Amino acid sequence: MQKHLKRVKKINDIPTILYHSTTSDCIESLKEGIDIKKSNKRVDFGAGFYLTGNYDQARQWARFKESKARRDGRIDVSGVIIQYKLNVEVLEKLNCLI
Q: Cα separations (Å) of 94 from 1, 17, 35, 87, 97?
């Protein structure tokens, strides 16, 4: 298992501060809500909205996404990291796997 990945055994083991890496041209879309249909389907775990509790990992992804965007001709964008605060009480009420 890679060093930045941890197996979560209890809901309280999940970090309450999570980060999402994207590019500056996607921020307005995210303000409207998360649309899984806009996500990349060719990634490790398929389409989804990926978060990490590791800021350094988020920074690496932001740099990667900026670099890829610029290679694709979107030269006016920059990599950004969006911080989310997880409400564990709400998460506990959901019927989901963690």
A: 27, 19, 19, 11, 9
Amino acid residing at 36: I
pTM over 0.85: no
In sequence order, which residues have a C-beta less than 8 Å from that of residue 28 and are 6 or more positions away?
none
Coarse DSSP helix, strand, coil percentages of the chain, rounded to the nearest 5 percent:
40, 15, 45
**Does an H or E element contain 48, and which?**
none
Instruction: Compute the C-alpha angle 5/9/10, nearest 5°.
Output: 120
Do the beta carbons of residue 22 and residue 30 sit within 8 Å? yes
Flag whether pLDDT at 77 surpasses 80.
yes
Q: How many CA atoms lie within 13 A of 27 on its CB side?
A: 11
